[in-house]
């Protein structure tokens, strides 16, 4: 069947859904994309900040990468600090390929760039439109949509992509469980804008006793601080006078993933299929990767292989984010002392830093076979 003749619904216009729609559109499909929100993530809510090298390679064919590189900042160093002493530095530019391991761009900007490229193919998300149910016939899924005026539409599709986030209605409708666990402790986050530009080329993990503060640049004059401590703001060593706090939030961390990423012709991608801690900046990147793989498989007529091809990547990333989270959230005083003693040696071990860099780059998941020279 010609690409344009397959009726495809993408449920959810977050980073995953927008990428799925874009990757399908550039291959000649005409997906319909809907979202129950009113638009992309607000620009001030930095959310998924880290864009890894794998994502930049995946978004190069659609030219979104060019646009990202114009706006994003390269995070050239990863530093670990305790008691104002630098325990370790990792040069994140020393990875193979053209991009460096990690760039920073607030999620709303990334989504806008995806949306802009998608509109070049005259595919526009239908906002304020909610998926309510997906029928039991999963080979020809029928979807009930609640439209902005409150009316209900029932439509049949050849393929439904559930990119509708952690609370996915699509996932629940097709009876796929989301097993896993939530961490006891919460994470707290605050973004500050300073009165002048600051050094924004590095990420820093500040180890406290107990707890930690992560420092990630958002823009040249904005920094995100993320911590396990509710009162962490009093421990921040601000690099310049504060102009304003642009965003603050708190959240609990869950590690969950589905056992299967598809049932019949209904597919799950992004947070609808897996969620984990932000350690390592993998969440949005993994969703974008799912979307790119799924679009390629659909174009190849091989979508039935999706779960089998994606699950290893999901399991790898969940394992890595668990390990990183455990390393930076330990509370036992003896373990903290040992960790702080071990970190300088660990980071000097080529095997350790190589593995860490591969993970942060996103190169620890299978390379996309449709991109020449992908790592
Ligand atoms: C504080 C924080 C920091 C983070 N930092 C990073 C980071 O540095 N790097 C990284 O890679 N990730 C990070 N993440 C994770 C990242 O934000 C998510 O993994 C990413 O947003 C997932 O994208 P998604 O498109 O799969 O889901 P979502 O962004 O949740 O998008 C789902 C979309 O579906 C829509 N929707 C939901 N239900 C329905 C329905 N029934 N019908 C229609 N539409 C529906 C929603 O409106 C939404 O637009 C962070 C997350 C948080 C909270």
Can you walk through the features of this model?
- This protein has 2 domains: 3-73 and 97-182 and 254-361, FAD/NAD(P)-binding domain (3-Layer(bba) Sandwich), CATH 3.50.50.60; 185-252, 2-Layer Sandwich (Alpha-Beta Plaits).
- 30% of the residues lie in helices and 28% in strands.
- It has 9 helices and 19 strands.
- The chain has helices spanning 15-25, 53-58, 64-71, 107-120, 169-173, 283-300, 306-329, 333-348, 350-361, and strands at residues 8-11, 32-34, 50-52, 73-74, 77-82, 85-91, 102-104, 130-134, 142-146, 152-156, 159-162, 180-194, 202-207, 212-219, 222-227, 242-257, 262-263, 266-268, 274-275.
Per DSSP E runs of 2 or more residues, the count of β-strands stands at 19
Parts with pLDDT < 50 across at least 5 consecutive residues = none
Structural class by secondary-structure content: alpha+beta
- Strand fraction equals 25-35%
Specify the helix fraction band: 25-40%
The ordered string of helix (H) and strand (E) elements is: EHEEHHEEEEHEEEEHEEEEEEEEHHHH
CATH level-two architecture of the largest domain? 3-Layer(bba) Sandwich
Number of helices: 9
CATH topology of the largest domain: FAD/NAD(P)-binding domain
How many structurally independent domains? 2
Placed side by side, the strands forming the largest sheet appear as 6-5-13-14-15-12-16-19
